Amino acid sequence: MKKTKPIKAVAAKGNTKRAVQVLEQLQQALPGCVACDDESRFRASLDNLRLSFLPDAVVTVEKPEDVGVVLKLAHANGIAVTPRGAGSSATGSAVPVAGGWALDLTKLNSVRIDPVARMVTVGPGAVTADVQAKVEARGLFFPPDPSSKKYSTIGGNIACNAGGMRCVKYGVTRDYVLGLEGYLADGSFVRWGAPLKKYVSGLNLKDLWIGSEGTLGVITSATLKLIAKPEKRWTGMFAFKSESKALQAVVGMLKAGVQPSICEFLDCQSVGCAETYTGKPIFEGYSGSSILLIEVDGTPAEVRRQRKELLDFMEDRALAYREARKESDAEQLWKVRRTCSQSMFSLADTKLNEDVVVPLNKQAELIRYTRQLKQEIGLATPTFGHAGDGNLHVHIMYNRGNKSDARKAKAGIKKLMQKVVDLGGVITGEHGIGLAKIPFMGMQHNPAELDAMLAVKKALDPKGILNPGKIFEPFEVWDHTPVQVKLPWDHR
Predict the structure, then answer these.
(1) For residues 112 and 121, what is the distance between their CA atoms, to the nearest angstrom?
(2) Contact, 176 vs 227, CB < 8 A?
(3) Helix axis angle, 64-77 relative to 17-29, nearest 10°?
(4) CB 373 within 8 A of CB 300
(5) Which of 112, 249, 325, 440 fits a 20 to 30 Å CA distance from 133?
(6) CA dihedral 343, 347, 350, 355 (to 10 degrees)
(7) What is the CA radius of gyration of the chain?
(8) Is 98 a domain residue?
(9) Between vectors from CA 260 to CA 301 and to CA 177, what angle results, nearest 5°?
(10) 397 DSSP β-pair partners
């Protein structure tokens, strides 16, 4: 990666006299919102990457304008501020690696629905699944559905442009953000876009904030576009002789005009893990086959037509299929997908989950490479993901306490990322860069691109106080030991 001059925040660490004075000012400005106890600081010190860096204080804001108060004081004193929601980020985006203040936005969780305009205005701390449930009760629909939706917040989804399984038909978070409100690094209030369906006034700075992982500003409100809730869904699961057959079927299906709302792929390694875990084959007579899980939705007539087209298409391609006639049946099929994830721990105690993206017609080549990589490094590489948009989650399983395994895993990740870039892909589709993927930025971007990004960062955050240490500055996760901790979304 090209060496760039880091933006250094002067974090007010430790018990220096100045640090104490600034914290006292913050406590006076926002009484009851500042915590400096060890338990609060530890909770805010990590996310799902499980690398812990203690902040000096945790500030839990209660009103949007509180964010401006925090940032004005932090900017004046050069204190690092790391915004966070639930902390479900997989790449370290919410880790206060420079110390300073962890800015907890979870109490900004308001939800206001406008059913006429088909919009919802939410606070950044609103939980994704809660927002979805409230709008669906009004016959509306917010499609982005990251796997962490029961815990993840809308602010976090915007920060990493989260996607999920329904992206193949409905797109990602960016496609639904109409307007943002929030604060710049110096505490100045800004509004990008508006609760309007048309808006071209000035530069599109809204999209700069989306996916910027809290490095360019802090969101306090987001207006999201909604669509009509689909009337009906149908789910089918198909077994294939090989991964290449399954992924060729995906390309052919889309070329034939079948438009699923979800198209999930499970490679043979993932299926093997699930079958070992449950003690029974997913498809009788076809143990260890590769699998596609496909959902179509729409009006009842649209679903009937798409189901017939899909079954006709798969007749000579799939070995076998199962379908869900009702919601409870669909849940049983989706349980296979969830079982694959947790069952991988039968292979090793640590999982590296890389959310890479390649062109649709390159997915089969990527899977062939993951099997080759398995042989090269001697570690399992089970893979599943969103085959409808090329966003596959490649896992490398290794034992954390085994130094040889760790070296192999580190080498394997580097090889994988280079292969993804060589295939015309991208090193992350929905997890973001955070800390974990900094070493690969130079593979993905040339010096001119990196310089342009850094220029934007410096323009909006000249003192480098917003989420410092992320995306641009050198960091190597292998130099740090993850903490052993159980987080709310852990299922094992």
Answers:
(1) 5
(2) no
(3) 160
(4) no
(5) 325
(6) -70
(7) 23
(8) yes
(9) 105
(10) 351
pLDDT digits (tens, 9 = 90+) for 462-483: 999 999 999 999 999 999 999 9
Mean pLDDT over 260-288 rounds to: 95
- pLDDT tens digit sequence for 21-63: 899 999 999 999 999 999 999 999 999 999 999 999 999 999 9
pLDDT exceeds 90 at position 329: no
Inform me whether the pLDDT recorded for 286 exceeds 80. yes
My answer on whether 101 and 31 are in the same domain is yes
Distances (CA, A) of 278 to 156, 284, 323: 34, 13, 20
In the chain, % helix, strand, coil (3-state, to 5) comes to: 35, 20, 45
d(CA 437, CA 97): 15
**Residue 473 contacts residue 98 (beta carbons within 8 Å):** no
Domain residues for the domain of 76 are 17-106+449-479
Counting the structural domains of the chain, the total is: 3
Q: Which token pair is 378?
A: 């001697």
Q: Strand 320-324 relative to strand 232-240: parallel, antiparallel, unpaired? A: antiparallel
Q: Between β-strands 262-266 and 383-386, what pairing exists: parallel, antiparallel or unpaired?
A: antiparallel
Which band of pLDDT confidence, cut at 50, 70 and 90, is reported for residue 492?
low
Average pLDDT, the chain: 93
CA angle 406, 407, 413 (to 5 degrees): 85
Q: Six-digit token pair at 270?
A: 């993932």
- Is residue 253 domain-shared with residue 391, that is, in the same domain? yes
Distance of CA 351 to the CA centre of its chain: 16
